[in-house]
Amino acid sequence: MDDLKESTARKTLSDSIKSIHIADRILTMTYPLVKDEKLLVAVLDNTYLAASGAINAILENQRELKKIPPYHADLDSKMNVLRLKLCNELKINPKDIVFIEELKELVKAQKTSKIEFNRPDKRVFFDGNEVHSLSKIILEKHIEKTKNLISISERVLSEN
Fold this sequence. Notes:
The chain has helices at 2-34, 38-64, 75-90, 94-111, 136-159; strands at residues 115-119, 122-126, 131-135. By secondary structure, the protein is mostly helical. It has a single domain, classed as Four Helix Bundle (Hemerythrin (Met), subunit A) (Up-down Bundle), CATH 1.20.120.330.
């Protein structure tokens, strides 16, 4: 049974790596050719999937090792477990946790936006409270931070 859980964490990490490769490919290859700002939303979604998958892989691994108690499936619970129980032990920078929460809020704002439109090289949306925008530069930074988070997940899984 332990092998099954370990493979679940590794599969989650593998899916996370695939998602970040898709996001990177859309941003660096497809978007410059097509120039459709709607692709920036797809990049955001895949980046968020990759970041949350990296966190899930760490949590599944630590749960298998019985280092953390059971937790709820929602992202807020997972982030609290990670922040309170694992950041110091696994040497995870709290800024990485804040980044994932910001990414989650950005995805949520885009999904619930009442108004969404394109500007040159940007996708702009209004969620009722704030105006948000996605650009290639912003998403490149998010992809790099997510790749760093995936590297942390790989390190944690290889140590255990």
